[in-house]
Amino acid sequence: MTTAPDADRARPEPAARSVRPARPADTVLSVLRNPRLLTREALAGVVTTLALVPEVISFSVIAGVDPMVSLVASIVLALVMSVLGGRPAMVTAAAGSVALVIAPLVREHGTDYVLPTVVLAGLVQLAFGLAGLARLMRFIPRSVMIGFVNALGVLIFVAQVPHIIDQPWVVYPLFALTIAIVVLLPKVTKAVPAPLVAIVVVTVIAVAARLDVHTVGDEGPMGGGLPGLTPWLAPFTLETLQIIWPTALSVAFVGLMETLLTAKLVDDLTETPSHKGKESWALGVANIAAGFYGGIAGCAMIGQTVVNVKIGRARTRVSTIAAGLFLLLLVTGLSAVMSAIPMVALAAVMMIVAITTVDWHSLKPSTLRRMPVPETLVMVVTVAVVVATNNLALGVAVGVLLAMVLFARRVAHVITVERHVTPGAVAGSGALDETSDVSDTSDASNASNAGGAGAVAGSPAPATVRYDVVGPLFFGSSNDLVEHFSYGDDPEAVTVDLSRAQVWDASSVAALDSVDEKFRAHGVTATFVGLDDRSEAFHGRLTGRLG
């Protein structure tokens, strides 16, 4: 007879299977050594920049700052995050969510307070990242993430509609041509990004034919040159801090939430991990730099990131460095070229991005039928709040809160208490071991007869009762725990077995104390057994001390 290790050695080796090794992730060095990959990354960056410019200009109008401020800040943000960030290929620039938060401050106090607000927000993000708080992202449920992605697709699509409707008739052939190139060119070749070809072709047609269409230049002034360092004009006083801190905290956490959610989305798209903590503190550094050279904060640009990763097929920092440098070139030397790009071409590209961003599988009737109703409700509410408020961060916050409430409600009903009664043995007979799941105490006469024929007459020993508590004990599930015990029907001693339960908070300890007090009020001694080491230590520290 062989022992287990001997048997393992005696077992024949399985036939070797041919497994194709996973393709290693592209690195900056591997891209620089490969002309094909370098071209792919650089062109992806160019396409991303072209999609970035009109939105950045529009956001500057929302924030109440000069468009050049947002463009220069976007250059700084893109380049700094390309070097320091924890998620390669993710695009960071002056974003609409940040513009919406800063706009009220600018309207009420002017642009002098933007720089101190951005610097304080950057410091908060820096501390958040260094403290490792980015790990909180794990608490965002999948249903919220799907809602976030679907809402993002809706927002991107809706934002392009004004560039299509109520426009001159010539816009519609250009729109159709752009869509056709983006959809059909990849079937012929993927050497050059189809959106870039579409934008170039439509721009050449519009310029050559002198078509009267809305262009990027119509969104805001495109003067060349770079500004100097942003001057600090706000006074260094406590009053300034009182003015800026609410806006600074909002900028910090809205930026962090959108950046970390976008990083998670890119993780899924590329099937590669990212360093969320590094991304958080790097965003703080980038925003401080953008504040001093540019003048406004930013965060991850979700739509442009999808363009970079899905359409441009970028995977490394080379693409975002290329995007930053190309934006710098556009701002300083090619502003006239940038101004001539028809908005309809960019709108068509972004509409394609919006359609591909939506998780259509999550909306199929078959999927909705299989999904639990609470999960679907969380997704729908997340989408509804985002679309209604145009605020991704608020939608995610509401979705997470709703998911927590629904989860607590479900878990509150998973606690079960099972009552086991073992009848006592008749004196002089063999010990009995008869356990049953009953809710009433055993009748003493039945217990006496349970010994069978020939049992010696005598007084029966008292029955024993054991309660098995099953499930996690926390504030939601332990509130009605006290109602699951038969205090008046139990013998003088009972055992409460908690080996299949865990104590998670003070509410649970207070509930167990209440159970013990009710047993003692009925003259019963309750013994609590089976707690794991953590729960036992927690219970021992608080029991009897909660008032």
Concise description?
This protein is an alpha/beta fold. The protein has 21 helices and seven strands. Helix 6 (114-130) crosses helix 10.
Task: Kindly describe this structure.
The chain has 547 residues and is an alpha/beta fold. Helices cover 57% and strands 7% of the residues. The chain contains 21 helices and seven strands. The chain has helices at residues 4-10, 28-33, 35-63, 67-84, 96-109, 114-130, 142-160, 171-188, 194-208, 238-270, 276-292, 302-311, 317-332, 335-339, 343-357, 365-370, 373-389, 392-411, 444-449, 506-521, 533-542, and strands at residues 92-93, 299-300, 416-422, 436-437, 464-473, 493-503, 525-529. α20 (506-521) links the parallel β6 (493-503) and β7 (525-529). The radius of gyration is 33 Å and the shape is elongated.
The largest pleated sheet is described as:
5 strands, mixed
Count of helical segments? 21
Class computed from helices, strands and strand pairing: alpha/beta
One letter per element, helices H and strands E, the order comes to HHHHEHHHHHHHEHHHHHHHEEHEEHEH
pLDDT averaged over residues? 82
Strand content: 5-15%
Shape, please? elongated
End-to-end Cα distance: 63 Å
Strand order of the largest sheet: 4-3-5-6-7
Which stretches are low in confidence, meaning pLDDT under 50 for 5 or more residues running? 1-22, 426-457
Which percent bin holds the helix content? 55-70%
